[in-house]
Specification:
The structure holds two protein chains of two kinds.
Chain A: E1 3-12, E2 15-25, E3 30-34, H1 41-49, E4 56-61, E5 64-66, H2 71-76, E6 79-82, H3 94-98, H4 115-129, H5 144-157, E7 162-166, H6 174-189, E8 193-197, H7 201-207, E9 210-215, E10 218-224, H8 230-238, E11 259-265, E12 274-278, E13 283-288, H9 294-301, E14 309-314, E15 317-319, H10 324-329, E16 332-335, H11 339-343, H12 350-355, E17 363-364, E18 367-368, H13 370-383, H14 400-412, E19 418-422, H15 430-445, E20 449-453, H16 457-463, E21 466-471, E22 474-479, H17 486-493, H18 504-507
Parallel strand pairs in A: 3-8, 3-9, 6-7, 7-8, 13-20, 13-21, 16-19, 19-20
Antiparallel strand pairs in A: 1-2, 1-4, 4-5, 9-10, 11-12, 11-14, 14-15, 17-18, 21-22
Helix pairs in contact in A: 4-5
Chain B: H1 3-22, H2 29-54, H3 62-79, H4 84-107, H5 113-131, E1 137-138, H6 146-153, E2 155-156, E3 159-160, H7 161-179, H8 181-191, H9 193-198, H10 203-229, E4 231-232, H11 241-251, H12 263-282, H13 290-327
Antiparallel strand pairs in B: 1-4, 2-3
Classes of the chains: A alpha/beta, B mainly alpha.
């Protein structure tokens, strides 16, 4: 047995982050670790990495007991991480990244780095992973998937016997995900023990030999290979069965009005154009592979990267959108993909974030009226059920789901006419996901045109009234509700025709 | 008053008490009013510097602006005999223009503030020296300047006017920074420019506004400084003053990463620097050690602040988590 955890506990004042967690990992197996955000997965992994010291329990590695690990011990015992947020140095080349801290040197007092030796050492590792780049490639030129490969190569070069993958596919395309899963399978064959953490249950189903589920800091169940499927994992994670996500609209979406996009050309695909009609009262899902141009479309609609050509009209009125300010003035709002970078000022309070887009409305003679601001934010806190003691709390202290609700609160405190969600539930736990879907449906029923960009197939299928699928910069087709299923979306996303061919004409 | 301002105030009172204990002359009216004058002079442009630092920028050109605008002002009034109100307006307009150019270079052309204002530092200093052929211009016996001399360098109730000017500027800028929409935008842009832009804020205009205000306050300070020294020698006038301003702003709690700081803090930072200067003089410490004392105190302040912040954030983070968990 490679690794055995027994009764690991960790408390912070007021919270029990981990409570008697036990699990084990054998050589040559993949353990799927699932649980909602805040269930204790990250704390547990920090214990393994030596970053957090547990207050109870023991860690047994290769038959040796440790009450706790230091970062150095974890590395020496062959534990390596491939992180969600990649930790590569993009100003250096691949070999330098893989061998960081263990560079081969020429002898002598200067300890100059022996670059030939470094490259020679790294090349076989890359070959083993089937990488399509060499050790001399600058990391800056690599895609996210390739950078991940660099991290895996680093783990191999340290002779890691346990590799922990933490949400490795959140930024990968479908084909890159498949390649990663194949790489993981190969590592397993070679006898490496792997802990695979993901919110994407489909991947866990594909690659895991066993699953351990955490909830509220405790292990709530183990699943053997034969028992692993969406339903069993979801039930363990949230402690109940998940109802079907889809709620139909309260009324048929109107055909007139809404957001119309004709011949829109974005910077990402200057030789392609996009036509799309978004009806008021519907949720239109926008699916496609990463890099298909969905985010560019959202950025063009919101004026972040003004469109090169084409017409956008809202409620029959043509608009020219050159900046987010102009989009907001028209009631077109964006809930961006990266909420920490583009959605929120983390160091500001909930109230200051909520009022940011319409601050002049909370001001008299240029001076902010704190009372008006706090009332508006408090109204959003209550109606969105943002879990915070008050609106003076800094946005950065909230969980992912609650942060996303603050971003939504910014826009709901104003008058949305069209709302674009870019990956609305990335990093949001299952419970809060359901609330966000309900909010989206509520908005649509109020007559707002809702566009939801998502890479999460479950979400696209479960939430959308119709699904438009992008492929290489254009809309490959639009699926009506009854045609919405995984194979059809995948066919369009990869540039093929859907099986029941119908709706493509309508999209144009 | 936040934690930082309180800490600074305590430090100032402590240092003042020790100095007064060693030499009671420190508390004499003459000495206090002398310090008040210097605090007024240095505080005003430090506030301008602070605004720019809050956007995440920096202004290295302040000292050279003093030299260039100083010689322009004296040339207009003392040499050409132009009425002083017009000369004042010209100087303020030039300061505003310089700030505007800095702001536009930073926001429109995407140059780094450090580079833009470093070039300003070199260009304005060179221009000032060329303008006068490297010779000193002084007020001399220029006529018709009695009113402005009294306004800029006079005293009422024994208190120097520059100190009143600082209080006025601090109140106005304080309200703008801490209560107005523009001030809120300044903090938002300084902390997270992208999120501010995604909220529909014209981030370029906000940042440029800070540079314009900084330029305007520098021009205003120029006039006070000219009447304080009565002459301008373009190669030395205002040398290093940008560093006093940066030091005051940083001591006062402005983070060079942007998005943090307060007017009260900057004023207190200026007070501390001037008290230190005064301490060096009054305790008979060799004046050549002046800069070293200042640097040492800033370093100790930064270290103490870092230690306090570290001790504070560790439990605060957990407490916030606990509060969220409790709310759930």
């Amino acid at each position: 047995m490679l690794l055995e955890l027994e009764g690991i506990g960790k408390s912070y004042p007021g919270i029990r982050a981990l409570d008697g967690v036990s699990l084990h990992l054998d050589a040559g197996e993949v353990l799927g670790l699932v649980g909602e955000n805040g269930a204790g997965k990250s704390t547990l992994m920090k214990v393994l990495g030596g970053v957090v010291q547990p207050d109870a329990g023991r860690i047994r590695l290769h038959g040796r007991d440790f009450p706790q690990l230091s970062v150095a011990e974890a590395g020496a015992q062959g534990i390596a991480f491939v992180h969600q947020e990649l930790s590569v140095f993009d100003n250096l080349d691949v070999a330098a990244n893989v061998l960081m801290g263990r560079e081969p040197v020429w002898g002598g007092p200067l300890q100059l780095v022996n670059r030939q030796a470094a490259r020679a050492a790294v090349a076989p590792l890359l070959a083993r992973l089937g990488a399509d780049f060499g050790p001399e490639a600058p990391v800056a030129t690599l895609s996210i998937a390739q950078r991940q490969m660099v991290e895996i190569a680093r783990a191999l070069s340290m002779r890691a016997r346990i590799i922990i993958f933490d949400e490795p596919t959140s930024s990968l395309t479908l084909s890159e995900t498949d390649r990663l899963l194949a790489t993981i399978a190969a590592l397993r064959e070679a006898g490496t023990g792997i802990i695979y953490i993901s919110h994407r249950l489909g991947e866990i189903t594909t690659c895991a030999d066993r699953v351990t589920c955490l909830r509220d800091g405790r292990v709530v169940g183990h699943l053997a290979r034969g028992e692993i499927n969406h339903a069993t994992m979801t039930r363990l994670m949230i402690g109940r069965d998940l109802k079907s996500l889809y709620t139909p609209p309260a009324a048929m979406p109107r055909e007139d009005g809404g957001l119309r996009i004709e011949g829109l050309v974005t910077e990402a695909f200057p030789d392609r154009s996009i036509d799309l009609a978004l009806r008021p009262g519907e949720i239109l899902g926008l699916a496609g592979l990463v890099g298909a141009g969905r985010t560019s479309l959202a950025r063009a609609l919101f004026g972040v990267e003004p469109a090169l050509a084409g017409r956008i009209s809202l409620g029959g009125q043509a608009l020219s959108i050159g900046s987010p300010r102009e989009a907001i003035a028209q009631g077109i709002y964006l809930v961006p993909e990266d909420r920490k970078r583009s959605g929120l000022v983390l160091d500001m309070s909930i109230a200051e974030n909520v009022s940011l887009p319409d601050l002049p409305d909370h001001a008299r003679a240029g001076l902010v009226q704190g009372g008006s601001e706090a009332r508006a934010a408090e109204a959003q806190r209550q109606s969105l059920r943002i879990r915070a003691p008050g609106v003076a709390v800094k946005a950065g202290t909230l969980s992912g789901g609650n942060q996303q609700k603050v971003v939504l609160g910014k826009w709901l405190a104003m008058r949305p006419r069209a709302l674009i969600f870019d990956e609305p539930t990335r990093g949001v736990d299952v419970g809060a996901k359901g609330e966000i879907y309900a909010l989206m449906r509520g908005l649509a029923d109020r007559g707002v045109a809702v566009l939801m960009i998502s890479s999460d197939m479950e979400e696209v299928i479960g939430v959308s009234d119709r699904v438009a699928v992008m492929h290489e910069g254009r809309i490959a087709g639009t699926l009506e509700r009854h045609e919405v299923n995984e194979p059809n979306i995948l066919r369009l996303a990869t540039g093929q025709r859907p099986e029941e061919h119908v709706a493509t004409a309508e999209a144009v | 008053m936040g934690r930082k301002e309180l800490g600074l105030a305590v430090l100032i009172v402590g240092i003042a008490a020790i100095t007064a204990g060693l030499n009671p002359q420190f508390l004499s009216t003459v000495n206090l009013m002398n310090m008040a004058n210097l605090i007024g002079l240095f505080g005003i442009f430090s506030i301008g510097q602070g605004l720019i630092i809050i956007t995440g920028g920096i202004d290295l050109s302040v000292g050279s602006i003093f030299a260039l605008l100083g010689v322009v002002f004296l040339d207009l009034t003392a040499n050409m005999g132009i009425a002083w109100p017009i000369a004042v307006l010209v100087v303020l307009a030039l300061g505003l223009l310089m700030g505007l150019v800095h702001g536009l270079l930073v926001t429109r052309l995407g140059l780094q503030p450090f580079v833009v204002t470093l070039c300003g530092l070199l260009i304005y200093r060179g221009a000032a020296r060329y303008y006068t052929g490297d010779s000193t211009i002084s007020l001399g016996y220029a006529e018709g300047l009695d009113a402005i001399t009294w306004l800029a360098a006079g005293r009422s109730f024994g208190v120097p006017h520059s100190f009143f000017a600082l209080i006025l500027v601090a109140i106005v800028v304080g309200v703008v920074l801490h209560r107005s929409v523009f001030g809120r935008y300044l903090f938002g842009v300084g902390r997270n420019e992208e999120a501010a832009r995604y909220s529909g804020i014209r981030t370029g205009a906000v940042v440029t506004g800070a540079y314009v205000l900084g330029g305007l306050l520098a021009a205003f300070s120029t006039i006070l400084l000219v009447f304080y020294t009565s002459s301008v020698s373009p190669s030395s006038f205002g040398n290093f003053y940008e560093l006093y301003a940066i030091a005051a702003a940083v001591l006062g709690g402005c983070s060079l990463r942007g998005g943090e700081g307060s007017v009260l803090g900057i004023v207190l930072g200026t007070v501390l620097l001037q008290v230190l200067q005064n301490l060096v003089n009054i305790l008979g410490i060799p004046s050549s050690l002046n800069f070293a004392v200042m640097g040492g105190v800033i370093l100790i302040g930064a270290l103490a602040d870092r230690q306090l912040a570290r001790r504070k954030t560790a439990p605060a983070r957990v407490a916030a988590k606990g509060a969220v968990a409790a709310a759930e």
